[in-house]
Design brief:
By secondary structure, this protein is an alpha/beta fold. It has 6 helices and 11 strands. The protein is globular and about 55 Å long.
Length: 251
């Protein structure tokens, strides 16, 4: 499993102050991992950490290279290594027809979802390939939008398709360093982002219909299981969706 001799494995979770990130971080702490919580708001990170001595709350802007570098340096300074990165921070971005999306909103979505994932993966990769014992696991939060789009979400969908390329490249380039990568594509886990889906979500035919959701704790449990796997086991892709939600063809 993703541990080393000084105690539970060291995991970095981005976007850990709320939603799926909080659920993942809490589950990992409960399972005995040491967890660095990265996010934009210190107060919400502290709420996630609670009273755990194995949690480390680090305010970090994942779109800023220096902020990401400083956060990973702080993790290594405290725990000497990084065993797992959970690249979870993301933004749904603007909604609308392609010609209604501003360039600024497009760039902001790409900055968080793609640039942020790359910057964190870049730092984690550098630590993992040089640490002793070497290697580690990178878990990217994709989305089923990395496979099929939701109407009116061109920026988010394009960014998540790009994350798929990031995951593939990390898997390939990580082979010689003992670094493996998993992309978890999630559909309709119950979080703040999907809060309105039970009332009605936009469908390809222009109507709004209620969609099922599922408890985010199931995603968190899956991430814990991935983090516990030995590095000679790779799970390139995992897709988790609410049963019965529009997915294949979005219909």
């Amino acid at each position: 499993m993703g541990t080393h001799e000084d105690g539970g494995g060291v995991v970095v979770v981005t976007g850990a102050g709320s939603g799926l990130g909080r659920a993942m971080a809490t589950a990992l702490l409960r399972d005995g991992f040491r967890v660095a919580l990265l996010g934009r708001t210190q107060a919400t990170l502290e709420e996630t950490a609670g009273a755990s001595a194995d949690a480390m709350a680090l305010r970090c802007d994942v779109t800023d290279g220096e902020s990401v570098r400083a956060a990973f340096a702080a993790v290594v300074d405290r725990w000497a290594r990084v065993d797992v990165l959970v690249n979870n921070a993301g933004s749904f971005g603007p909604q609308g027809e392609p010609d209604e999306i501003s360039v600024q909103d497009w760039d902001a979505t790409m900055a968080v979802n793609l640039r942020g994932s790359f910057l964190c993966a870049r730092e984690a990769f550098g630590v993992m390939r040089r640490q002793d014992p070497r290697g580690g696991r990178i878990i990217n939060n994709g989305s089923i939008s990395a496979q099929v789009p939701r109407p009116g979400s061109i920026a988010y969908t394009a960014s998540k398709h790009a994350v798929t390329g990031l995951s593939r490249s990390l898997s390939l380039d990580g082979r010689r360093h003992g670094i493996v990568c998993t992309q978890v594509d999630i559909g309709n886990a119950a979080t703040e982002l999907t809060a309105g889906f039970a009332d009605g979500a936009l469908q390809p035919d222009g109507t709004r219909r209620p969609e099922p959701t599922f408890d985010a704790s199931h995603v968190a449990d899956a991430v814990v299981q991935l983090a516990r796997l030995p590095l000679d086991v790779s799970v390139p892709w995992l897709t988790m969706v609410a049963a019965g939600m529009p997915y294949a063809g979005r219909g």
